[in-house]
Each structure stands twice: as structure tokens, then as C-alpha cells.
Design a protein that fits this description.
mainly beta; four-stranded antiparallel β-sheet; globular
């Protein structure tokens, strides 16, 4: 399991139940919990590389780092203030073929110094899966 805890609230982002080319993304905080199975297969865009890029950031940056899943059901956007406060905005929605019309949007705050550990934890999490997630 990969868990990111906000430094500003009880918000959490959890990735778990990695199996084959899918994982479950769960958002929790403020008394609410939402989860969705995300496809991130070899023909998709595994979030492993987004987290590795995030983990390599050692100083504040100016351009947002963006991840979007193959099915467009998950978007993550990371920005960093000059003071080293990282905001990770997460949007979940049904995949493109679904007829449901909903969007969940939240953000969690992290500290710049947390990012290297997050990058390492994400790499370890995704290496549990098949060869398709390995760099």
C-alpha cells in the first residue's frame, strides 16, 4: 500500500490492491471515503513514473507535474510553492465509457522534504506487480 497523508488536514490518498494492471485509489478525509479501480497497464500510463518524477524534486518548481490515466478516470496535478508546500490535486471520475456523470476533486498538502520518500515508496509499491510496471 502507498499512503500519502496531508500535512494540513486528515486527508489521505491510498493506492492499494495492486493486481495485474490495476490498483485501487482511495481518498479519505473529513468523514468521507471514495475509491475507484484504476487501470494502469503497460499500454496505459502507470502513475509510478509520476511519483518517481515527484520524488526527484529537491527544490520548488514552477510548472505543474501532471498525471492522467489511460481511461481519463484519474488526474493528479502537483504544484509547489516557493516555500516548499506541495499541493497534490486529485480528480476521480468514471472512465470515458461510463454513463455516470460525477467528478470528485480534492487536494492534499505535502512538504517538499517528503517527496524523495514518496518516490521510493511508490517504486516499491508498483514493483509488487507484474513486469509491466517495472522500469
Amino acid at each position: 500500500m502507498l499512503t500519502l497523508h496531508s500535512v494540513a488536514s486528515d486527508q489521505q490518498l491510498r493506492l492499494h490492491s495492486l493486481q495485474n494492471d490495476e490498483f485501487i485509489l482511495e481518498l479519505a478525509g473529513n468523514g468521507l471515503t471514495a475509491s475507484q479501480r484504476i487501470y494502469a497497464g503497460p499500454d496505459g500510463n502507470p502513475p509510478q513514473y509520476f511519483f518517481q518524477e515527484l520524488g526527484a524534486m529537491l527544490a520548488p518548481w514552477t510548472e505543474p507535474l501532471v498525471y492522467e490515466s489511460l481511461d481519463h478516470d484519474l488526474t493528479m496535478i502537483a504544484t509547489c510553492s516557493a516555500l516548499g508546500i506541495v499541493t497534490l490535486q486529485i480528480e476521480m471520475r468514471p472512465n470515458e465509457g461510463a454513463s455516470d456523470a460525477w467528478t470528485l476533486c480534492t487536494s492534499i498538502q505535502l512538504e517538499l522534504g517528503m517527496l524523495p520518500a514518496i518516490g521510493r515508496e511508490a517504486q516499491a509499491f508498483f514493483q509488487q506487480c507484474s513486469v509491466s510496471f517495472r522500469p
